[in-house]
């Protein structure tokens, strides 16, 4: 399968900080790749590198056979970008917000493209309303529709549901899932485990500017977390004792809020997993925390 | 399949479609606030003419170089309208769009580059300022200034000057770290340029140093060109207009360079 996006050995530094540190990443056409990582992992910088808004210090970047940064403008013409921050024109109507971007993308029939985007965002009835009259969920749907107004081949979603309440998040997931089912290539950065699990065909776990693991969510879980996780609750002294026994058997243990989670608990022997432990299926969250050392959201 | 025409063609520099797209955004926004802007643009010259023109001409100054003082001030105020409707919106508007609204992040994610972005912003500000800059002249006609054919060139003079000041304002917005640093820009550049333009008094009355500054002040060149349009051009006005074109070209390139540095990491 051809690569829609290819990054090889990409490095981006901001003064003494290396935001992207030798990143290798291929996104085959037609899949949704979730870029999962903690805050500061380099996800947003990677997105900016792909739109030419940041220039790599080292490495090669290609989007749909356009070499970056030299050919970034042509690459952007075939990409849609949905930013993390709401940057809609709030005093302007919904349809004007879409029409402006249809023009910027040189869409031949602006009216038809706007109508289609309004249907996608389910905002046809609100087309003549100013953006600041819309609810938060409507604004996010509009932001997504704006990034798709030119029917791009590749879509970059930068933390598309960050800060949204669960109901709005679910609405957006439905829209993104529709997009994925139509064969659009999606690169989605997120630090929400559930988002990556639900939407991504493959997940690349990013930490400190590098991809540290990549596979389908199920494969990642199998490779790094086994089949089951045991959550043990109790006073700190008891948790310390349980942790020591589990680690003594070579099991990975991570904090899980007030509890500890023994990952791959199916491999435990004797009394490493207490009888009152809560046994559940291993999750992508277990993988994320084990690999990055960060608490999941 | 991508719907964008740009997807199938090699994209060049300074594409009219990109510039028109950005300007369409400005027009869409302008439709939401044009009434307030137009109201103040018309009222301000009236107030100034009543205060300076009628007030001073009735008490202290009757005429300057054979021109009734109210007409002297009225024609000079075109330059005031131009600098305040170009440099200030360019400074504050650009800063707000970049820093607070993240508008430029959205635009630069489309097939648009910084050169097109800056060019479109300058053109829009200059078009608006070129139009509003003519209002004081129209108000002065209302106060008794005789219309003249040369006045038809005033919108072009205003447009060209506003281009230069828009570029200046954008370059400043791309340079300052905080919005309150515009106070330095206003105090060090905008106000002195406004005062030594020859709007309210002829620069010949100023100390020699100020007269030299006035000669390199684009606003002074504009004031002289507007008065040329109203009372008769001189050969030197060609050089004045060339100066304004040069000023616009210089600030255009500086603004692009500064914005490139600010917007692209």
How would you sum up this structure, described in words?
The complex is a heterodimer of chains A (297) and B (265). With 297 residues, chain A is α/β, with parallel strands linked by helices. Chain A has two domains: 30-52 and 79-216, Rossmann fold (3-Layer(aba) Sandwich), CATH 3.40.50.300; 227-281, Alpha-Beta Plaits, CATH 3.30.70. Helices cover 35% and strands 28% of the residues of chain A. Chain A is built from ten helices and 14 strands. Chain A has a six-stranded mixed sheet, sandwiched between helices. Chain A has a four-stranded antiparallel sheet with strand order 2-1-4-5. In chain A, α3 runs parallel beside α5 (136-147). With 265 residues, chain B is mainly alpha-helical. Chain B has one domain. Helices cover 72% and strands 2% of the residues of chain B. Chain B is elongated and about 60 Å long. Chain B starts with 15 loop residues before the first helix and ends with a helix. The relative contact order of chain B is 0.14. The model of chain B has no long low-confidence stretch (mean pLDDT 90). At the A-B interface, α2 and α3 of A face α1 and α4 of B.
Summed up, what is this model?
By secondary structure, chain A is an alpha/beta fold.
Strand order within the widest beta sheet of chain A: 6-7-8-3-9-10
| Structural class assignment of chain A | alpha/beta
Query: Helicity level of chain B, as a percent range?
Result: over 70%
Beta-strand proportion of chain A: 25-35%
Total DSSP helices of chain B: 11
Report the portion of residues of chain B in β strands.
under 5%
Query: The CATH topology of the largest domain in chain A, please?
Result: Rossmann fold
Please report the total strand number of chain B as a whole number.
2
Radius of gyration of chain A: 22 Å
Main pleated-sheet profile of chain A: 6 strands, mixed
What quaternary form is this?
heterodimer
Helical residues, percent of chain A: 25-40%
CATH architecture of the largest domain in chain A: 3-Layer(aba) Sandwich
Order of helices and strands of chain A: EEEHEEHEHHHEHEHEEHEHEEEH
């Amino acid at each position: 399968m051809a690569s829609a996006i290819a990054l090889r050995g990409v490095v981006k530094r901001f003064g003494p900080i290396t935001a992207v540190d030798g990143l290798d990443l291929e996104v085959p056409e037609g899949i949704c790749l979730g870029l999962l990582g903690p805050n500061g992992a380099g996800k947003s910088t990677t997105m900016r590198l792909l739109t030419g808004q940041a220039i790599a210090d080292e490495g090669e970047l290609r989007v749909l056979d356009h070499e970056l940064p030299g050919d970034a403008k042509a690459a952007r013409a075939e990409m849609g970008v949905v930013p993390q921050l709401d940057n809609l024109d709030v005093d302007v109507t919904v349809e004007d917000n879409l029409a402006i971007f249809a023009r910027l993308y040189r869409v031949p029939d602006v009216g038809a493209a706007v109508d289609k985007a309004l249907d996608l965002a389910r905002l046809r009835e609100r087309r003549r309303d100013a953006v600041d009259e819309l609810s938060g969920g409507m604004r996010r749907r509009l932001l997504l529709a704006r990034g798709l107004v030119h029917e791009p081949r590749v879509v970059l979603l930068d933390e598309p549901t960050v800060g949204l309440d669960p109901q709005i998040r679910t609405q957006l997931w439905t829209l993104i899932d529709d997009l994925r089912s139509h064969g659009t290539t999606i690169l989605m950065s997120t630090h929400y485990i559930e988002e990556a699990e639900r939407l991504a065909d493959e997940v690349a776990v990013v930490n400190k500017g590098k991809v540290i693991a990549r596979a389908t969510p199920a494969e990642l879980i199998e490779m790094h977390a086994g089949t089951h996780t045991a959550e043990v609750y109790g006073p700190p002294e008891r948790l310390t004792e349980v942790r020591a026994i589990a680690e003594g058997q070579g099991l990975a243990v991570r904090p899980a809020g007030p509890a500890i989670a023994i990952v791959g608990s199916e491999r435990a022997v004797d009394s490493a997993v207490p009888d009152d432990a809560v046994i559940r299926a291993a999750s992508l969250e277990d993988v994320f925390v084990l690999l990055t050392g960060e608490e999941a959201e | 399949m991508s719907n964008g025409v740009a997807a199938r063609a090699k994209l060049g520099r300074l594409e009219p479609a990109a510039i028109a797209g950005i300007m369409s955004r400005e027009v869409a926004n302008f439709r939401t606030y044009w009434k307030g802007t137009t109201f103040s643009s018309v009222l301000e010259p009236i107030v100034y003419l009543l205060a300076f023109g009628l007030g001073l001409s009735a008490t202290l100054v009757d005429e300057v170089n054979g021109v009734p003082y109210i007409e002297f001030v009225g024609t000079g105020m075109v330059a005031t309208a131009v600098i305040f409707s170009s440099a200030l919106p360019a400074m504050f508007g650009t800063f707000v769009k970049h820093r607070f609204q993240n508008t430029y992040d959205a635009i630069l994610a489309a097939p648009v580059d910084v050169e097109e972005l800056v060019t479109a912003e300058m053109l829009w500000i200059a078009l608006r300022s070129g139009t509003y800059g003519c209002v004081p002249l129209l108000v002065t006609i209302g106060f008794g200034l005789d219309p003249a054919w040369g006045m038809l060139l005033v919108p072009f003079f205003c447009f060209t000057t506003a281009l230069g000041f828009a570029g200046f304002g954008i370059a400043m917005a791309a340079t300052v770290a905080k919005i309150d640093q515009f106070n330095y820009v206003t105090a060090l550049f905008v106000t002195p340029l406004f005062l030594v333009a020859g709007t309210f008094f002829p620069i010949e009355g100023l100390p020699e140093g100020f007269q030299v500054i006035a000669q390199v002040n684009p606003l002074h060149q504009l004031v002289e060109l507007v008065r040329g349009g109203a009372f008769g051009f001189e050969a030197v006005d060609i050089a004045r207009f060339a100066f304004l074109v040069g000023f616009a070209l210089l600030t255009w390139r500086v603004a692009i360079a500064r914005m490139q540095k600010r917007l692209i990491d």
